[in-house]
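In keeping with the milestone schedule agreed at the kick-off meeting, the structural modelling team has produced records for the first pair of proteins. Each record is given below as a sequence line and a structure-token line. The laboratory manager (R.T.) confirmed that both were archived under the project's standard naming scheme.
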Amino acid sequence: METTELKEQLKRQIIQFLNLTDLTPADIKDDEPLFGDGLGLDSIDSLELIVLMKKEYGIDIRDPREGRKVLVDVATMAEYIQAHSAK
């Protein structure tokens, strides 16, 4: 899958998995931080994103330090998926 297409898919999945019904994929920038001042996600959301990675891409993130490196923004998630995807 092409990077741009993967990023758009990820944005749709983030909105769906986290029930962010007030957002559209266009509202989420590729390099916008997912946590803190960016999208404003919290630790519960990070667990949901880890489930998303496992369920949709076959990627199992068990180490919290690895999760913090991967779940930075949509672009970082897409790069990680392309490098580690089992599908």
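The second protein of the pair:
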Amino acid sequence: MNLERELPTPTTAVLRPRGRLTMAAATTLKTAIDGTVADGHHLVVVDLGETEFLDSSGLGALVGGLRVARAAGGDLRLARVGTQVRTVLELTTMDRVLTPHVTVDDAFAAG
């Protein structure tokens, strides 16, 4: 998995994991979310448009990141969720907590 980070404002961030978000990559994503929030970017959007696969470890990284962001007074939101990732979210009912948004802008605008 490759991971790109964009900081559109002093308090927001977009993380773009590319490839497979599995046990091997989950720690990298969780560390990136934790560091981003610690740097003051409390509203984090994870753009999953180029994430082709998500397993339970990847989902755990997202949930852990959500906890960290909310503890800092922010939020973690998902954008551009593909079919496989959406299926995992729906089967685990995590789509109720990590609501998928169509675009990154939609995710930032959601309140």
